[in-house]
DNA sequence: AAGCGTCACAACCGCGTCTTC
DNA sequence: CGAAGACGCGGTTGTGACGCT
């Protein structure tokens, strides 16, 4: 039925990328810009399938990616957005421009899910119920907050005190350097895909508050495909957020595909309605020291 | 010091969606 | 309009690092 997976072709290499391969890939993208992944293996001579090249770029080599431990704020954002959007990692990642969907997904699966589950178990056997009138999102928030309170604060503290690079391998550092090499190019290049990277690079230099983060998000929505704000076509990631919001009931009548992006709902919800909770999340490690 | 178990994360796989012809 | 190709997303796996015994 389906076509053969591209990576099953004879001669296609699998497994970890080498620094040499990364350099080849980065050099090629530096010259041609991201996209047209099909032609990348052909034109570079890389023995990798197009998919693998794209993933390597988007998840690892792309400039502006923040690696290392998630901050409590980011954790809070992820928990809220996951509760709201479900496992729409790409959509969630678009609100955390420095993080990739893969990164967030991994972090959720290895840390947050476990943390919530652990608390839920403890909750069932020992603790009182969450607020009676809590909706799904609040329920999650409550769990998360309580988890931090009773069980998770140690973890968070640990993460706060760990150096972001503490677990980085030597090669991870080398790819980071490759990424940094691109920064100049990304700033100067007129290529449409650079907008988000410029913003995230900027964010690397300055601590941004929520507003800046969402400005960043706004910019990120015009990335890669060169979609301008005035373009009628709705970017794919918009659509995923729209459908997620619609299905979760967050989107109301005022939302339609011709109106401002749906992130304004989330923005509003996160910044206003739940701002206190997010802040609370951020403060918990300090509170419960 | 060696063996074993666990954790974290990079990478792969399969499938759905979009685009092009 | 349908088929085929290209791309993107979410789930899963493989493996190296680390900690414990």
UniProtKB/TrEMBL annotation:
What organism does the UniProt record list as the source?
Nicotiana attenuata
The chain positions of domain Myb-like read: 9-61, 62-112
Gene3D superfamilies membership: Homeodomain-like
Give the protein's recorded name: Transcription factor MYB60
Q: Which GO terms describe its cellular component?
A: nucleus
PANTHER family xref list = MYB FAMILY TRANSCRIPTION FACTOR, TRANSCRIPTION FACTOR MYB60
Q: Which UniProt keywords apply?
A: DNA-binding, Nucleus, Repeat, S-nitrosylation, Transcription, Transcription regulation
Pinpoint the HTH myb-type domain residues.
9-65, 66-116
Gene name as annotated: MYB30_1
Give the subcellular location. Answer: Nucleus
| An example Gene Ontology molecular-function term | transcription cis-regulatory region binding
Against InterPro entries, the record matches this protein to: Homeodomain-like_sf, Myb_dom, Myb_TF_plants, SANT/Myb
Q: Which domain of life is it from?
A: Eukaryota
The record's Gene Ontology biological-process terms are: green leaf volatile biosynthetic process; response to abscisic acid; response to auxin; response to stress; stomatal movement
